[in-house]
């Protein structure tokens, strides 16, 4: 792929008609990719490739002004609000940024600003460009009243209910706050969580997310806030829209104020005052960014003086006082030596690329997941191919492209095995995944035990991948419950197992018996149940037995449990083998929880009701939602035919209109309090 910025396009080759055809083509392609990105959260090309299309179009429009058009994608931000969410108009529109990949253009930007500033001195901040989903929070008198996605920049989707579930977003600003302020930032999925989420998706036969941004976009645009809550999103803030009353004079002071209010900002903000120092800071950020919790794809350089920002203003698309410097994706070319199969804990067969080791984005890569058979077919990956490797979300090595032009005919197509490579049992298709049909398969047993003992579950120190493999091999572990039958004598018979390690391991196992119930629940490996939902289940049911006998309807009343999860939990507890496992764990003395005798008998008076909240209420939305859930009801983000109640506070807008249109009963604050007692 050619670099978009530095090589001038050969415009002279284009006759006027060829230019006009190409402009039309480019606009269509860009519009399509915009829709895929913003409306479906499923891009087909990288940002880098997208930027290259946009830049080619801009250059053609510059060279042929007669082809320019008001509604060209070069003039505006992509994306339209989704139909399912109600729309939210931004008070101050959300702009995009001009991009560059070239240090030279970055210098030109600084020079341009110096000229505009005339005699005045200039100063810049250099921040990470967070690769998440842009969000605008509206706080009124310090209270979060609305959260909206960018949409087309003027109007976005109202995603308040989902944003309320993000733990580092304050529902109330600390200290004194203006009567009205829009806070702008990015919602992201932490890189580490992205890696885990995708591994789980492979296991469940779901298509992987291409990067953390897609995962965040998919999560924030969930109509069910419970799913958003289960995804562990976070946010970081870097700007403001409307701001009533006194405003700071410089960007750095704005950051300090956001932080004082309790809003998270970037951990590193660098500074510069001329071409050299700004370029140096951008290079430094290029190194620092690998250590941030979120994925970044560039650095944003902003003029610090807010007065000068106002004075220099914007073009139709972007402010003149800021620019985004994008880092080129770090890719490496290598050979795909073989494709092997990894068997997961639920039996999913995941194809893995065995690569000639190659250095990319800070470490050597020798393996990359290929996710599933369809992925291999879609990219036409063959054994012996030369491939391009990139780290998805800066952490997971991924094959992004096959160099088909380098094939010499010796490459071999890959076929999924008909039998499990671990135990030899036949495989069967489940969605996009192939699964081993045996339950006693050694690989599955190993993975189930590894998961049970892992840090996020029972946290049994010392019982890692290598030891589990050794114990399974030696016939000492055939399932989770065997962990509690291990004894010193048989451990000491193992190779490389000393007195001290054996003592420590047995102590860690003994200690795990009293670990909190949610750890056990997560460790059992019930499909779709992650840490958050395991915690919610433990909080709600207090004992494993209460959970085991819960109906799907009761499960659905819980904050982070959606329909798929409710069915999965219910089915898991019906299974005979799983019941037998639970009985042996009970006998082994594991903590199955204690019934909460202090709690009032559960009142399910709102059972089967589905609520939407809107407007300003006298209590926070979160409190109202919690109350509804406690009483057995469900809270969703938008009004539909399924909605049974609308709780409307002051200044309720389009949701109220929609509810009236559909004949959904509307309750005000007072009626709601009465209903809930
Ligand atoms: S400032 C008017 N700062 O990148 C300027 N944007 O490609 C508004 N982004 O629309 C944006 N990190 O969604 C700014 N530190 C940062 C950013 C940032 C990520 C996003 C933002 C923006 C997009 C432009």
CATH topology group of the largest domain: D-amino Acid Aminotransferase, Chain A, domain 1
Give the class-level CATH name of the largest domain: Alpha Beta
**Percentage beta strand:** 15-25%
Mean pLDDT: 88
CATH architecture of the largest domain: 2-Layer Sandwich
The major β-sheet equals: 5 strands, mixed
Number of strands: 24
Bound small molecules, by name, code or SMILES, are: 2-(butylsulfanyl)adenosine
Structural class: alpha+beta
> DSSP helix count?
24
Distance between the termini: 65 Å
The largest beta-sheet arranges its strands as 2-11-10-3-9
Task: Please bin the fraction of helical residues.
Answer: 25-40%
Structure write-up:
This protein is α+β, with helices and mostly antiparallel strands and 677 residues long. It folds into 5 domains: 16-75, Helix Hairpins; 87-326, DNA ligase/mRNA capping enzyme (D-amino Acid Aminotransferase, Chain A, domain 1), CATH 3.30.470; 331-419, OB fold (Dihydrolipoamide Acetyltransferase, E2P) (Beta Barrel), CATH 2.40.50.140; 442-598, Orthogonal Bundle (DNA polymerase, domain 1); 610-676, BRCT domain (Rossmann fold, 3-Layer(aba) Sandwich), CATH 3.40.50. The strands form 7 sheets. The protein has a 5-stranded mixed beta sheet, with helices on both faces. The chain has a 5-stranded antiparallel beta sheet with strand order 14-13-12-16-17. A hairpin with a 2-residue loop joins strand 19 and strand 20 (433-436). The radius of gyration is 28 Å and the shape is globular. The termini are far apart. Residues 1-14 have low confidence and may be disordered. 2-(butylsulfanyl)adenosine binds next to strand 3, strand 8 and strand 11.
């Amino acid at each position: 792929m050619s670099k978009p910025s530095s090589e001038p396009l050969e415009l002279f080759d284009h006759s006027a008609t060829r230019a006009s055809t190409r402009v039309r083509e480019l606009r269509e392609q860009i519009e399509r990719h915009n829709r895929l990105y913003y409306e479906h959260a499923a891009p087909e090309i990288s940002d880098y490739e997208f930027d290259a299309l946009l830049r080619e179009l801009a250059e053609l429009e510059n060279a042929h002004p007669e082809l320019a058009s008001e509604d060209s994608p070069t003039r505006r931000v992509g994306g339209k609000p989704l139909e399912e969410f109600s729309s939210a108009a931004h008070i101050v529109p959300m702009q995009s940024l001009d991009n560059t990949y070239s240090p030279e253009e970055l210098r030109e930007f600084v020079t341009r600003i110096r000229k505009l500033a005339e005699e005045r001195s200039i100063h810049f901040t250099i921040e990470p460009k967070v690769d998440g989903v842009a969000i605008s929070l509206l706080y009124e008198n310090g209270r979060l009243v609305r959260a909206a996605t960018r949409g087309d920049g003027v109007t976005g989707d109202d995603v308040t209910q989902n944003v309320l579930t993000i733990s580092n977003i304050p529902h109330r600003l600390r200290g004194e706050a203006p009567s009205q302020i829009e806070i702008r930032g990015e919602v992201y999925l932490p890189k580490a969580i992205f890696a885990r989420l995708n591994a789980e998706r492979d296991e469940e036969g779901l298509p992987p997310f291409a990067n953390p941004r897609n995962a965040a976009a998919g999560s924030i645009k969930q109509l069910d806030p419970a799913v958003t809550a289960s995804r562990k999103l976070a946010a970081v803030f870097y700007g403001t829209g409307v701001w009533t009353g006194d405003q700071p004079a410089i960007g750095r002071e704005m950051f300090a104020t956001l932080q004082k209010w309790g809003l998270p900002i970037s951990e590193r903000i660098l500074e510069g005052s001329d071409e050299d120092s700004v370029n140096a800071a951008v290079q430094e950020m290029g190194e620092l960014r690998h250590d941030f919790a979120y994925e970044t794809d560039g650095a944003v350089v902003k003029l610090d003086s807010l007065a000068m920002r106002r004075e220099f203003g914007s073009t139709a698309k972007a402010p003149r006082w800021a620019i985004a410097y994008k880092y080129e994706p770090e890719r490496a070319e290598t050979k795909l030596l073989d494709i092997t199969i990894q068997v997961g804990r639920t039996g999913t067969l995941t194809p893995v690329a065995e690569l000639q080791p190659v250095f990319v984005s800070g470490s050597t890569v020798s393996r990359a997941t290929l996710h599933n058979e369809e992925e291999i077919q879609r990219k036409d990956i063959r054994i012996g191919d030369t491939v391009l490797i990139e780290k998805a979300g800066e952490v997971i090595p991924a094959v992004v492209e096959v160099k088909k032009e380098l094939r010499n005919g010796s490459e071999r197509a890959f076929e999924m095995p008909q039998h499990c490579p671990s135990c030899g049992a036949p495989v069967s298709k489940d969605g996009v995944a192939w699964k081993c049909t045996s339950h006693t398969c050694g690989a599955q047993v190993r993975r189930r035990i590894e998961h049970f003992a892992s840090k996020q579950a029972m946290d049994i120190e010392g019982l890692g991948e290598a030891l589990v493999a050794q114990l399974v091999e030696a016939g000492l572990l055939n399932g989770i419950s065997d962990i509690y039958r291990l004894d010193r004598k048989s451990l000491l018979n193992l190779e490389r197992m000393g007195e001290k390690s054996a003592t420590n391991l047995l102590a860690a196992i003994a200690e795990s018996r009293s670990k909190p119930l949610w750890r056990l629940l997560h460790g059992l490996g019930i499909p779709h149940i992650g840490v958050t939902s395991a915690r919610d289940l433990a909080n709600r049911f207090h004992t494993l037995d209460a959970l085991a006998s819960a109906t799907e309807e009761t499960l659905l009343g819980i904050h982070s449990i959606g329909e798929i999860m409710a069915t999965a939990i219910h089915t898991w507890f019906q299974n005979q083998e799983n019941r037998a496992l639970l009985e042996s764990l009970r006998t082994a003395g594991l903590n199955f929880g204690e019934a909460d005798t202090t709690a009032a008998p559960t009142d399910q008076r709102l059972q089967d009701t589905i609520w939407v909240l809107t407007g300003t209420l006298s209590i926070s939305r979160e409190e109202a939602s919690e109350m509804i859930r406690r009483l057995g009801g469900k809270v969703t983000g938008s009004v539909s035919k399924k909605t049974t109640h609308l709780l409307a506070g002051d200044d309720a807008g389009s949701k109220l209109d929609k509810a009236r249109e559909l004949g959904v009963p509307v309750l005000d604050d007072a009626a709601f309090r009465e209903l809930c007692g």
